C-alpha cells in the first residue's frame, strides 16, 4: 500500500483533534470502559468489569474493545517504564490513538484501491481498443483521454478537511472501532474486483460490530449482481458465510463477558428495530438523512454536486461502491430514529466519487472563459472552507466534555492538597460527559473512591459517606437528602460547557468609529500580538456557561441538630 505526505497529514489531523478533545461521552462509554477493564483486569476474571454494574439497555460486543486493547497493551507497558502517572488518562489516549490509526489505514487503503481501479480501467480500455483493431472491428468514436491521476490527492484533501471523519476518527464510538476500517477494506475489495470476499467481510462486520452494515453489504451484493460481477448464488453463499462466522465468533466471545448466551447485535436489533424501542431516542422523517445530516457532513456541499459528474467518469466498480453507499443511506432512512454515525460508512465512497469528478475537472480544465476561471478558483477553495468550518466545529465540540474536565480539576485539587482516603460522588450527567475509569486517581496511592450510584434509594443511604460531590446543583441549598445542605457543603469550583456563538464580540473589538484599518493601526501602536488578539477574539465568541459544580463537605446534619 502506497503512502503520501498528505496521508501522514490525515493522521496528524486525527491526532490533533484527539489531543484537543481527550475526553469521551456517553455514546462512547461502553467501549472505553471495556478497554479499561480488559487492560487492567485481563479477560478471564470479569468480576470488576464496569458493564456488570452498568449494563445498559442492550449488550454490546467486546470484540472491538478486545482488538483495540490488544493494540494498546504494548504501548501502555512501554509508557509505564518511564514512570507512573497519577491517572490512566495517558492509556486512554493510547487506546484512542489505536482507534485513530485503524481508521486512518482504512481510509488510505480505500484511496489506494480506487487509484488501482482507475489504472486497471485505463489498461482494460486500451486492451479493448487494441483487440478491436486486430479483428478489424470499428472502435467508433474514441473517448477522450481521462487519466484521473489526481483522484487520490483530491480524496485525501476532502477527507482531511472534513469534520466527522477526522474528529471522530479516534473516538471510541462503536461505528469507528474496527467497524469503519473493515467497511473501507471491503469497499476497497469491490474496487479491486473481489466482490465475493467483500460481501463476506461486510456480512461478518455486520454480525459482530454494527448490524446496520448489512444494508451496505446488501447494496454491494445487489449492485454487483446487476453489473454481472457476481451471481445471486455467490451473493447468498458468501453473505451467509460471513454472517454465520461472525455470529459464531460473537456468540463465543461475548457470551463469556456477558455471562449468558448472546449475540449482541442480534439482541440490539430485536430491542431497537423489532420492538421499536429506538424511537424513544427521537424520530425523524424518512428524508432526514438527505435533508439534514448529509448537509452537515458535507460543508460546503461541493462533494455532493461533484458526485453527479463523478458517476459518469468513474470505473464500474467505483460506481458499485458509490451506489452501495447511497443504498445504505436509503435503507437506514426507513428507520425512524436517525443519527449521523449510522451512515458514516457511506461518507468515504461519496467522497471518493466526488474526488473522481474533481480530478477530471482539474486535469482537463482550460482557463479560457470567466466561468472556467471561477471553477478553477472554487474547486480548491472548497476544502479550504471545509477546514475552516471543521476548526469551528472542532473547537465547539471540545467544550462539550465538562464531566471529564471537572474530574480532572478535582484530581488536581486532591494531588495539590495531599488528600487521601476520601469518597467523591459523581452525578449521572457528569459521568455522561467525559468521566471514565481512566480518569480516576490510582487507588493504592490516593485511596480516592469514585462513587457513581444511580439508584435514588441507595444514593440516599450512601450520601452521608460522601466528602466531595461533582453535580449539577448550582447552590448548596439545592443538594438533596439533608436538612441543612447549605451549611454542610462548600462550593469549590464550577465547570463550563459550550452554549452557542456570540458574534457581537467582533463588534466590541472596534472602538467608536474605528474601521479595520484603524483597528490594525491601533494594535500596531500598542505592540499587540496579532495572533493572540485574533485567537482570543474568536475564542470569546464561543459562549460558555457553568454546568457542573464541585462541593466539599464541611459538616453533617447531626452537628447542626446538636448545636441547635
General description of the model:
With 564 residues, the chain is of the alpha/beta class. Helix content is 62%, strand content 6%. The protein is built from 26 helices and 5 strands. It has a 5-stranded mixed β-sheet with strand order 2-1-3-5-4. Helix 4 (63-80) crosses helix 5 and helix 10 (213-226) packs across helix 15. The longest helix has 46 residues, at 89-134. The termini are far apart. The model has no long low-confidence stretch (mean pLDDT 92).
Please supply descriptive tags for the structure shown above.
5-stranded mixed beta sheet, globular
Question: Could you give a short description of this structure?
Answer:
The protein has 564 residues and is α/β, with parallel strands linked by helices. The protein contains 26 helices and five strands.
Shape: globular
Category from helices, strands and their pairing: alpha/beta
Report the helical percentage.
55-70%
The averaged pLDDT comes out at: 92
Biggest beta sheet attributes:
5 strands, mixed
How many individual β-strands? Answer: 5
Enumerate the strands of the largest sheet in spatial order, edge to edge or round the barrel. 2-1-3-5-4
Question: Measured on Cα atoms, how large is the radius of gyration?
Answer: 28 Å
Total helices: the number is: 26
Helix-strand blueprint:
Blueprint lengths: L4 H16 L8 H13 L8 H4 L9 H18 L8 H46 L16 H11 L2 H4 L7 H17 L3 H14 L4 H14 L5 H27 L5 H11 L13 H10 L4 H12 L2 H17 L14 H18 L5 H29 L3 H15 L6 E4 L1 H4 L11 H4 L2 E3 L4 H7 L5 E4 L13 H4 E13 L3 H4 L7 H10 L4 H11 L1 E12 L3 H7 L1
Parallel strand pairs: 1-2, 1-3
Antiparallel strand pairs: 3-5, 4-5
Helix pairs in contact: 1-5, 1-6, 2-4, 4-5, 5-6, 5-8, 6-16, 6-17, 8-9, 9-10, 9-11, 10-15, 14-16, 15-16
Amino acid at each position: 500500500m502506497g503512502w503520501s505526505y498528505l496521508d501522514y497529514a490525515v493522521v496528524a489531523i486525527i491526532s490533533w483533534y484527539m489531543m484537543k478533545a481527550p475526553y469521551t461521552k456517553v455514546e462512547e462509554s461502553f467501549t472505553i470502559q471495556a478497554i479499561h477493564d480488559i487492560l487492567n483486569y485481563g479477560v478471564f476474571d470479569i468480576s470488576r468489569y464496569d458493564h456488570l454494574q452498568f449494563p445498559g439497555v442492550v449488550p454490546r460486543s467486546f470484540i472491538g474493545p478486545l482488538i483495540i486493547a490488544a493494540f494498546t497493551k504494548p504501548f501502555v507497558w512501554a509508557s509505564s517504564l518511564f514512570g507512573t502517572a497519577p491517572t490512566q488518562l495517558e492509556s486512554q489516549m493510547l487506546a484512542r490513538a489505536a482507534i485513530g490509526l485503524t481508521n486512518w489505514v482504512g481510509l488510505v487503503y480505500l484511496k489506494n484501491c480506487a487509484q488501482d481501479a482507475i489504472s486497471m480501467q485505463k489498461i482494460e480500455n486500451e486492451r479493448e481498443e487494441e483487440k478491436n483493431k486486430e479483428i478489424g472491428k470499428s472502435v467508433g468514436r474514441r473517448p477522450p483521454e481521462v487519466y484521473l491521476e489526481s483522484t487520490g490527492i483530491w480524496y485525501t484533501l476532502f477527507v482531511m478537511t472534513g469534520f466527522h471523519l477526522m474528529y471522530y476518527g479516534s473516538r471510541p464510538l462503536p461505528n469507528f472501532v474496527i467497524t469503519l476500517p473493515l467497511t473501507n477494506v471491503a469497499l476497497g475489495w469491490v474496487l479491486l474486483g473481489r466482490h465475493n470476499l467483500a460481501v463476506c467481510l461486510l456480512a461478518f462486520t455486520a454480525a459482530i460490530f454494527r448490524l446496520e452494515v448489512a444494508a451496505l453489504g446488501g447494496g454491494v451484493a445487489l449492485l454487483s449482481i446487476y453489473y454481472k460481477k457476481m451471481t445471486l448464488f455467490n451473493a447468498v453463499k458468501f453473505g451467509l458465510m460471513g454472517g454465520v462466522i461472525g455470529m459464531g465468533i460473537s456468540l463465543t466471545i461475548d457470551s463469556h463477558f456477558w455471562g449468558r448466551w448472546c449475540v449482541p447485535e442480534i439482541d440490539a436489533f430485536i430491542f431497537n428495530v423489532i420492538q421499536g424501542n429506538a424511537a424513544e431516542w427521537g424520530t425523524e422523517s424518512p428524508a432526514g438523512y438527505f435533508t439534514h445530516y448529509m448537509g452537515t457532513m458535507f460543508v460546503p456541499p461541493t462533494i455532493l454536486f461533484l458526485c453527479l459528474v463523478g458517476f459518469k467518469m468513474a470505473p464500474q466498480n467505483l460506481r458499485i461502491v458509490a451506489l452501495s453507499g447511497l443504498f445504505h443511506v436509503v435503507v437506514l432512512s426507513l428507520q425512524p430514529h436517525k443519527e449521523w454515525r449510522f451512515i458514516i460508512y457511506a461518507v468515504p465512497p461519496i467522497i471518493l466519487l466526488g474526488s473522481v469528478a474533481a480530478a477530471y475537472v482539474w486535469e482537463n480544465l482550460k482557463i479560457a472563459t470567466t466561468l472556467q476561471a471561477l471553477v478553477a478558483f472554487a474547486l480548491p477553495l472548497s476544502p479550504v472552507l471545509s477546514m475552516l468550518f471543521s476548526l469551528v466545529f472542532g473547537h465547539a465540540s471540545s467544550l462539550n466534555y465538562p464531566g471529564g474536565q471537572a474530574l480532572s480539576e478535582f484530581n488536581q485539587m486532591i494531588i495539590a492538597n495531599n488528600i487521601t482516603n476520601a469518597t467523591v460522588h459523581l452525578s449521572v450527567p457528569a459521568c455522561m460527559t467525559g468521566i471514565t475509569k481512566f480518569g480516576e486517581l490510582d487507588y493504592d496511592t490516593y485511596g480516592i473512591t469514585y462513587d457513581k450510584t444511580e439508584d435514588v434509594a441507595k444514593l440516599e443511604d450512601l450520601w452521608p459517606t460522601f466528602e466531595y460531590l461533582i453535580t449539577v446543583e448550582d447552590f448548596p441549598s439545592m443538594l438533596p437528602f439533608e436538612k441543612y445542605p447549605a451549611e454542610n457543603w462548600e462550593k469549590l469550583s464550577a465547570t463550563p460547557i459550550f452554549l452557542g456563538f456570540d458574534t457581537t464580540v467582533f463588534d466590541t473589538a472596534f472602538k467608536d468609529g474605528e474601521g479595520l484599518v484603524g483597528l490594525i493601526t491601533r494594535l500596531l501602536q500598542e505592540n499587540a500580538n496579532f495572533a493572540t488578539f485574533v485567537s482570543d477574539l474568536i475564542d470569546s465568541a464561543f459562549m460558555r456557561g457553568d454546568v457542573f459544580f464541585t462541593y466539599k463537605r464541611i459538616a453533617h446534619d447531626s452537628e447542626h441538630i446538636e448545636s441547635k
